[in-house]
Amino acid sequence: MDGVNSVALPSDPAPYDAVLLLSFGGPERPEDVIPFLENVTRGRGIPTERLEAVAGHYHRFGGRSPINDQNRALLSALRAEFDARGLRHLPVYWGNRNWDPYLVDALRTAHDAGARRVAVLVTSAYASYSGCRQYRENLADALAELKEEGRTLAVDKIRHYFNHPGFVEPAVDAVIDALGRFGPPGSPSRDRARLLFVTHSVPSADAAASGPNGGAYIAQHEDVAASVAAAVSVRTGHPAGWDLAYCSRSGPPAQPWLEPDVNDRLRMLHADGVPSVVVVPIGFVSDHVEVAFDLDIEARGTAAELGIEYVRAATAGADPRFVAALAGLVLERAATTRGGSPQRVSVGRLGASPDVCPAGCCRNPWGERPAACETGADR
User: Fold this and answer.
1) Residue 232 near residue 240 (C-beta atoms within 8 A)
2) Which of 135, 201, 209, 228 could disulfide-pair with 246, CB 3.0 to 4.6 Å?
3) Could you count the other beta carbons within 10 Å of the beta carbon of residue 123?
4) What are the pLDDT digits (tens) for 92-105?
5) Where does residue 253 rank: exposed (0-12), middle (13-18), buried (19+ CB within 10 A)?
6) CA 249 to CA 66: how far, in whole Å?
7) How high is the pLDDT of residue 21?
8) What is d(CA 304, CA 307) in angstroms, rounded to the nearest whole number?
């Protein structure tokens, strides 16, 4: 793939003595759904009726989000990857922002097992308040709670990986596989299919403030979409037209969020005569409810009403290339922390993200917390 930089990565995790997989979390039983959603939206003024509507999405799946099982699979794959690299001594923990196992409990367990400096892998690939800075705030809050208990721990959040080849290449293969479901090369549905990349909508102000100079959330998604589409064009021999759309808006009606919604974009494509789409959930690491309901049920239903042939591409999940990339990013950061200069792999135009988020990056739209997210405690 053009634009890929690669080099053999180091295999020494020092100074890290543990790795934490940090994720969003999700309910596992029907009675968990509303308490979970209250955790997610606390302090944001989301109307009760909106929570109840979103709860209905979870109840379509028995009140159980797929995200925790996805994280268990990723955790197991990471453990196997580190073992294969001769790092059986490096423990890997899992904690969530919004549901059990909670972040603070995972860090407490790591500390009590002897960890003192932890590399943190977040299951969010892009820069934004909710996708990066909020996790940093969560880490700072957890560290403060542990400190009050007499437990001192340091954590380093691993850089954004939206344009790492280990994340991008599985997306390319997923699109190729999805196109194949329209029929053999030469089939009109296959050759005229539009790629519709989808990510989670966020408040427009959040998107505008993302990254050190603003606008990173959209720019990063557009750069990855362009990279995937270019690689697909090379593989298929046909130009791959594409669009970026959004799903899962959850804010108050008066608050501007990123548009177009995926369903609205499908209607636009229908009006333009597009016969088929491959929906690519490029903003998501795994198949959780935003993918399983918003794309596999709601958007698929919209496409059926319009007469558009619809195939949804797979997410990275526990693809071995993605798992290897995450392990490699831990070792890359370890080498940098020790004073080395490992080559930082990337795809596309934007280059590798910095290890340490700059001060003021992805500001909190609900109120600044500089002490919580710009100190060395949660780099």
Assistant:
1) yes
2) 201
3) 23
4) 999 999 999 999 99
5) exposed
6) 19
7) 98
8) 5
* Nearest in space to 24 (alpha carbons), one of 36, 15, 33: 36
Tokens standing for residue 113: 């097992």
List, in sequence order, the alpha helices (H) in 237-338: 262-271, 289-292, 300-306, 320-337
Residue 47: the pLDDT is 78
**pLDDT band of 369, cuts 50, 70, 90:** low
Alpha-carbon gap, residue 308 to 330, rounded angstroms: 42
Tokens of 302: 């919209």
Helix (H) or strand (E) run with residue 140 in it: helix 134-148
Distance CA 376, CA 153 (A): 12
CATH architecture under which domain 18-161+318-373 falls: 3-Layer(aba) Sandwich (3.40)
**Domain 18-161+318-373 matches domain 165-312 at the CATH topology level:** yes
Report the half-sphere exposure of 210 (CA within 13 A, side-chain side).
26
> Which CATH number applies to 165-312?
3.40.50.1400
d(CA 311, CA 182): 8
Q: Are 133 and 361 in contact (CB under 8 A)?
A: yes
C-beta pairs of 112-116 under 8 Å, 24+ apart in sequence: 112/151, 113/18, 114/17, 115/17, 115/18, 115/91, 115/153, 116/17, 116/152, 116/153, 116/154
With CA atoms as reference, report the closest residue to 327 among 3, 13, 100: 13
Token representation of residue 126: 């892009």
Q: Which of 1, 69, 59 lies closest to 32 in space, CA to CA?
A: 59
For the stretch 28-84, pLDDT in tens is: 999 999 999 999 988 777 778 888 989 999 999 999 999 999 999 999 999 999 999
Supply φ then ψ for residue 228, to 5 degrees: -65, -45
Distance CA 179, CA 172 (A): 11
Look at residue 20 and give its three-state secondary structure: strand
